[in-house]
Amino acid sequence: MEIIHDVQAFQQRMLAERQQGKKISFVPTMGFLHQGHLSLLEEGRGRGDLLVLSIFVNPTQFGPNEDFDSYPRALQRDAELAAKTGVDILFAPEADAMYPQGSATTVQVTGLSEGLCGASRPGHFDGVTTVVNKLFNLVQPHVALFGMKDFQQLAVIRKMVSDLNMPITILGMPIVREPDGLAMSSRNTYLSDDLRRQGLSLIASIRSVCESAVAGQRDAATLIAQARDIISAQPDARIDYIQICHDETLQDLEQVDEHAVILLAVRFSTTRLIDNHYLLQPVRA
Ligand SMILES: Nc1ncnc2c1ncn2[C@@H]1O[C@H](COP(=O)(O)OP(=O)(O)OP(=O)(O)O)[C@@H](O)[C@H]1O
Ligand SMILES: CC(C)(CO)[C@@H](O)C(=O)[O-]
Ligand code: BAL
């Protein structure tokens, strides 16, 4: 596996690979790799001839009071895991090379990026779509893989790709969970044992509302109240949002149907966890 830090060198290398007719799979991440990331890489490996991973903690998607400085970073360990998983090229640029002085262009997906996490993290998705657009231009992948854990991010990226006629197939991959059901996330490392236990209320509430929905309760407000009760019982939980939305439009639904997804964001002390699930699909965790 080759590690490239320099933006221009990386772009030249990717152009050369494409000219050789390689089919390119791309997985963008912020690093501190876990099995969720590796599942994207494993799928990507089978989808192309060249597997490219980016690790870049993108400053423009963090708010001024968010965790950019403390975000976990472990490039050496990540590189070892990536190499074992079959990554061909790891791109790990510096922030000032990605955003040289004078950078003035952003990409914004209106509508879809405004509710849910967009409402509690103003500007977050503009940072995501801008950096993903830049990465897509550098890599020019055939296929790019994203996790469904970041459900709104996936919807926003699909919309950007469609609206801007990008010739890229976007694959959304299932959420990988710890054995006890907690969705894997780099930010889980912030949690004390006690907060981690409290964090399990996300999957507990998902299980409970999915059971009710499958048993016939289709009223979204009732199901949201049920989830809220389970999570609010945790002493350190501060609910950011619990919503039941249509999977493509992300509009709130009043009645549950096969498009209905429950989306949750909850702070446990300073750590913000997100999770989601299709209400009428079985919970495997
Ligand atoms: N548990 C998971 N299962 C499947 N995909 C995941 C999981 N966690 C993250 N991903 C995906 O990996 C990609 C990179 O995500 P990122 O590097 O932000 O990791 P993360 O663990 O989600 O970190 P964070 O704690 O910042 O949310 C995204 O497409 C994200 O959806
Ligand atoms: C897509 C992404 C790599 C853009 O920085 C990030 O938002 C992430 O890791 O999900
Ligand atoms: N996984 C999404 C990146 C973020 O929370 O900033």
From TrEMBL:
Alphabetized Pfam families for the sequence: Pantoate_ligase (PF02569)
Function: Catalyzes the condensation of pantoate with beta-alanine in an ATP-dependent reaction via a pantoyl-adenylate intermediate.
Stretches assigned to coiled coil: none
General remark: The reaction proceeds by a bi uni uni bi ping pong mechanism.
Entry's Gene Ontology cellular component terms: cytosol
SUPFAM superfamilies recorded: Nucleotidylyl transferase
A single MF term (Gene Ontology): ATP binding
Organism lineage string: Bacteria, Pseudomonadati, Thermodesulfobacteriota, Desulfuromonadia, Desulfuromonadales
Catalysis performed (reactions): (R)-pantoate + beta-alanine + ATP = (R)-pantothenate + AMP + diphosphate + H(+)
Subcellular location, record wording: Cytoplasm
Active site positions: 37
Binding site for ATP: 30-37, 147-150, 176, 184-187
Protein name as it appears in the record: Pantothenate synthetase
Family, per entry: Belongs to the pantothenate synthetase family.
Binding site for beta-alanine: 61
EC number annotated for this UniProt entry: 6.3.2.1
Top-rank lineage group of the source organism: Bacteria
Subunit structure: Homodimer.
Name of the gene this protein is made from: panC
Chain sites annotated for binding (R)-pantoate: 61, 153
Pathway(s) this gene product operates in, as recorded in its UniProt entry: Cofactor biosynthesis; (R)-pantothenate biosynthesis; (R)-pantothenate from (R)-pantoate and beta-alanine: step 1/1
Gene Ontology biological process terms, A to Z: pantothenate biosynthetic process
Keyword DNA damage: no
Keyword ATP-binding: yes
Signal peptide, first to last residue: none
Keywords: ATP-binding, Cytoplasm, Ligase, Nucleotide-binding, Pantothenate biosynthesis
